[in-house]
Amino acid sequence: MTGSTLAAKPVSVTDEERDCLGRAMYFESNRSDAEGLLAVGTVVMNRLEAAAFPNGGICSVVGQPRQFAPGVLTKKMDDKSLQKVAEVTDAVLDGQRHPKVGRAMYFHTAGLRFPYNNMHYVAVAGGNAFYEKRKPGAVEQATPPAPATALAFASAEAPAAPTMPVVAASVSPAAAPIPAPVETAAARATPAASVPDHRAAPIRTVRATVDEKPAPAARAPKAAHSRVALTPAALAPEPLIPPPVLNLPRP
After folding, report:
1. N or C: which end of the chain has fewer CB within 10 A?
2. What does the pLDDT look like over 85-105, one tens digit per residue?
3. What is each CA distance from 208 to 46, 213, 214, 217, in whole angstroms?
4. Looking at the DSSP assignment, which residues form a beta bridge with residue 6?
């Protein structure tokens, strides 16, 4: 991993703690960016050692309300990304840290701006901007630094919508103007079915005789109702699912 360094002692944790660390990295960073995963893992380990955050282990830090992504401990993770997340998780537990994140314990989505004067930014990685909280006046970098990849968060102007040429149609004074049909995506796909033919013969209506009666409409079959769906147990809210563990691949 580019720019990474071994900066801490290895940590021995349970499989559940390992999964909690991997979940924070998975849901809070771009999963294809190993540097971004490492940066989030560094923040989690920094909080684990700080007295200002829960000291009940990694799962307590990650599960602290309104700190990490909603459902970070319960949502399903995509299998195709778990191998890379597991590798970076084990690197963090072995002592690897993001060198630019340092001792920072805070981050937010890159591209956002806040009016606070105590945010000292140190790095941008994996879609996040990482910062330290400092006293006002001690902030040296009040805006996030440029990301490692120039295309990662480059703001590009949205292309202007193409203008359609306006064609002026000559109107005969003897005939009223006939509005032209509006061309839509469906009209372009099937022009023959969507463009009306003004030369078609008029439709003649025929009055029904007294003996003729409209055929009764076929009744739609009634949807089958499940008695189980109407039981009080089924109407009750679903019980909370305990956090799944042992999701990351084992070395």
Report:
1. C
2. 999 999 999 999 999 999 999
3. 84, 8, 9, 17
4. 96
